C-alpha cells in the first residue's frame, strides 16, 4: 500500500499484499475487518458505495475465481470472510483492495485495516501485522478562538487562535497573521510566536463589560469569534501570615 498519509475529509483507496511463509491449505480463512472508527461495515457488491473490498488471488478477481475462494459478509463484525477452496502456493499473489474507504471524522488516530487468519473454521483467529496509516486534518475552514470566560479589569489575559478544518481538528497549516477585533474595531494583528508557533495575543480590559473577540485572515477567508468574556472588578488583595502549622493551614481561606 502507499506510504502517503491520508486526509480525514477524503475517501481513499488502498491495497494490502498478503505475504506468506507457507502453503495455505483448503479451508483456510481470512477475516477482513472494517477500518477502525468506521461507521460503515465492509461490502463486496458495489464498487461505487463506501468501504468496497475486492480480493485478487493469482491475478483473478472474484468473478473468475469462484473455484479458488468464496467471500461472505460477517453479520456479527461487519467484516468479510474469505475462504480458500483449494490450496494456495507460497508464491501465488494474494491482494486485498479497498475502495471508497471512510471512517469517523472525529478521530485522527492512525488508521489500520485489520486482517486475521485461521487455518480452518473453528480455530483461533490470528491477527496479521498491517501498516498503520497516518491521518491528517483537512484544509483550514474557520478559526477557533478561546479566552477566559471571566477576566479581571486591568489584569492581562490571553486570547488564543487556531485554524481548524471542517470537523474541528487543528489544521496543519496555520495562518501567518490574523486581524484581531473587538466591538467591531481592529485592535491589532496577531502573528505566530517565534518559539511555539502559536497564535496568541495578550489583552487587558480597562472597563467592566461583557465582550468577545473576533479574528479573520487578511483576505477574510478564515473567520471566528471567541466565547463571551465577563470583565469584573479586580479582587481585593490579601496578605496572609502563617507559621505553616497544620492548624494554621486549615484556617487559611481558599484562594482561587
Structure description:
The chain is an all-beta fold and 256 residues long. 2% of the residues lie in helices and 36% in strands. It contains one helix and 20 strands. Strands 5-6-3-8-9 form a five-stranded antiparallel beta sheet, with no helix packed on it. Strands 15-14-18-19 form a four-stranded antiparallel beta sheet, with no helix packed on it. The protein has a three-stranded antiparallel beta sheet with strand order 2-7-4, with no helix packed on it. The protein is elongated, with a radius of gyration of 29 Å.
Residues in helix, %: under 10%
Assembly annotation: single chain
**Straight-line distance between termini:** 54 Å
What count of helical segments does DSSP give?
A: 1
Q: How many beta strands in the DSSP annotation?
A: 20
Shape: elongated
Biggest sheet, spatial arrangement of strands = 5-6-3-8-9
Main pleated sheet: 5 strands, antiparallel
Secondary-structure-derived class: mainly beta
Could you report the average pLDDT, rounded to the nearest whole number? 86
Approximate strand percentage? 35-45%
Secondary-structure element series: EEEEEEEEEEEEEEEEEEEEH
What would you report as the Rg, rounded to the nearest angstrom? Answer: 29 Å
Ranges where pLDDT stays below 50 over 5 or more residues in a row are none
